[in-house]
Specification:
Elements (H helix, E strand, L loop, with lengths): L1 E5 L3 H13 L1 H6 L3 E6 L3 E3 L4 H5 L9 E3 H4 L4 E5 L2 E5 L4 E4 L4 E3 L2 E4 L3 E3 L7 H4 L6 H13 L3 E7 L8 H15 L6 E6 L9 H14 L2 E3 L4 E5 L4 E4 L4 E3 L2 E5 L2 E3 L1 H5 L25 E3 L12 H21 L10 E6 L5 E6 L12 H18 L4
Parallel strand pairs: 1-2, 1-9, 2-5, 9-19, 11-12, 11-17, 12-13
Antiparallel strand pairs: 3-4, 6-7, 7-8, 10-18, 14-15, 15-16, 20-21
Helix pairs in contact: 1-10
């Protein structure tokens, strides 16, 4: 069986590594082959950009050589796919090379699109790239007081980042003696403070304790930089002195160009992880790339990749899959500089965040170092 993995982020990497260990003998005998096609020779630990934005990590701590993370036997090509020929079971890369497959795994991730909101890209700070994280840090260091507005677009990568940015910025300003000169204001597009109801209820209590003002049903319409206001589709207008955004996201442009899914999200069966529609029996979709209505988080990609790899190995060995994905997600929630909690949930079981504490924060900081073992599929 020829397996082609498109994308070298968490989902694609964990899938390929997990599968390679399960089918080692088949890889050695030539019965199976795993090819990975990726756009970069570097692998990035993306949740770390929050810590770069706060001056607590350096950008080079967040990257490794992609080749160093892969199991022997995985054929890596730094040559991104440009064209999907699903009816012919082949893909064509940027270099013009064709790769034929029996099974295609698409794990291309997502991208922020602040430019879709007039004025947002030019005015707001966010932490979805090394450049933006460093600009974030420079900006908050120059802040001397006023209203910090945290505003959110949907959908977005990392479900907890709006809350984490608010809590960690609160402690950042507290450490600099600026709390008496600073007001925090938080907006969210739906009728609660988070897409997950129980997380929203938990956040409401924490925000009230800290004095964070909130507004719901606030869908970003435009930013008026000259007047220092953000306007919503609902007609609200909120002033700011510092605008912190969680911009809306789309899937990758290559997915849109090839017509595989609206806004770059590929229609995906929530349990089997196969692409829905024609040729879906030969295509698996992982991580942010899916249109499954569940958090676009690293752990989502991780758990999906494990299920998919076990099923593909079973398909090779016994001719049928053995597992379904139950919607499992685990997200840390940084509730300040030294306190954290977590949300763990499935399709059937909602999250129940607990009181933040130092132990969970310490575990999160440890995981930042252990991530590379996770990418190898060892955790």
């Amino acid at each position: 069986m020829r397996i082609v993995v498109v994308g070298g982020g968490m989902g694609g990497t964990i899938f390929a590594n997990n599968l390679a260990r399960r089918i080692g003998s088949e890889l050695r005998s030539g019965k199976a082959k795993i090819t990975m096609l990726t756009a970069s020779d570097k692998h990035i630990y993306q949740p770390g950009w929050l810590y770069v934005a706060l001056g607590r990590m350096m950008p080079d701590e967040l990257e490794r050589e992609q080749a160093s993370l892969l199991e022997p036997g995985i054929d890596l090509h730094v040559d991104p796919v440009e064209t999907f020929k699903l009816d012919e079971k082949r893909v064509i890369t940027k270099s013009g090379k064709t790769h034929e497959y029996d099974l295609l795994v698409i794990a291309t991730g997502s991208r922020p699109v602040p430019e879709e909101i007039p004025g947002l890209k030019e005015t707001a700070i966010h932490c979805y790239s090394p450049e933006d994280a460093l600009r974030f840090y420079d900006t908050i260091n120059q802040f001397k007081g006023g209203r910090i507005l945290v505003t959110v677009g949907l959908p977005h990568k990392c479900p907890m980042i709006p809350l984490e940015v608010t809590f960690t910025l609160y402690d950042f300003m507290k450490d600099r003696g600026l709390l008496d000169k600073t007001e925090f204001y938080y907006t969210y597009p739906i009728g609660r403070l988070h897409s997950l109801e129980n997380v929203g209820k938990w956040a409401a209590v924490e925000f009230e304790r800290l004095g964070v003002k909130t507004e719901t049903f606030f869908n970003l319409k435009e930013v008026d930089r000259d007047k220092g206001v953000v306007r919503s589709e609902e007609g609200s207008e909120v002033k700011f002195d510092l605008l912190v955004a969680v911009p809306p996201h789309r899937g990758q442009e290559v997915i849109e160009r090839n017509g595989l899914g609206a806004n770059g999200w590929i229609p995906t069966d929530r349990h089997t992880l196969h692409m829905e529609g024609p040729h879906g029996e030969n295509v698996l979709v992982l991580g942010d790339t899916t249109n499954i209505p569940i958090s676009k988080a690293g752990s989502t990609a991780h758990f999906e990749a494990e299920v998919a790899a076990e099923n593909v190995a079973a398909l090779i060995k016994i001719g049928r899959p053995v597992r379904t994905y139950d919607g499992k997600v685990f997200c840390f929630i940084e509730a300040g500089k030294d306190r954290a909690t977590y949300a763990m949930f499935t399709y059937q079981k909602p999250p129940e965040p607990k009181m933040p504490n130092g132990a969970v924060h310490a575990f999160k900081m440890a995981y930042n170092k252990l991530y590379w073992a996770s990418a190898r599929g060892l955790l």
